[in-house]
Amino acid sequence: MLLRQRQQTKRSAFTLMEIMVVVAIILILASAGVVVYTTMLADTRVSRAKLDVKSLEQAVTAYYVKRGFYPDTLVQLTQRDQIDGSPAILNNERAIYDPWNNMYIYEPNTRNPNTDKPLIYTNGPPGMNQPVRNWD
């Protein structure tokens, strides 16, 4: 009887090897999850930059319709109108910054030959082969 109790006690615990295997499996799954997360985060930032560039293009067009000329800088879109005191076209000053915290590049004198709209773009993160711009 005493022998059976000892055997049952030994069988109810996990061995060190079993715990190490479980920890190893958890670490492998976690590292795979981190890789997928960082890839998705990078893709999300590029998508956000594309949407931001389109929004900035619309804001620049609204400025042009209101004033008859394009703004010199994107900062002008976030400022109250000095002439009639109307609110800014962009309410959030963060709207002129890309997901990598760089200001979007705006070139009012570089125009699209088809639409005559000024160039707005970001170079994106380091190592990005092609900038995100409003002409694409």
Write the layout of secondary structure elements.
Blueprint: H1 2-11, H2 16-67, E1 105-111, E2 118-122, E3 132-133
Antiparallel strand pairs: 1-2, 2-3
The ordered H/E elements are HHEEE
Tell me the total number of β-strands.
Answer: 3
In the CATH hierarchy, what is the architecture at level 2?
2-Layer Sandwich
Level-1 CATH class name: Alpha Beta
Provide a count of the helices. Answer: 2
Can you tell me the number of structural domains?
Answer: 1
> Outline, from the CA principal axes?
elongated
Structural class: mainly alpha
Query: Radius of gyration from the CA trace?
Result: 28 Å
Low-pLDDT stretches: none
CATH domain fold name: Glycoprotein, Type 4 Pilin
Q: What is the averaged pLDDT score?
A: 87
Question: Strand arrangement, largest sheet?
Answer: 1-2-3
Can you give the helix content as a percent range? Answer: 40-55%
Major β-sheet profile? 3 strands, antiparallel
Strand content: 5-15%
Q: Termini distance?
A: 81 Å
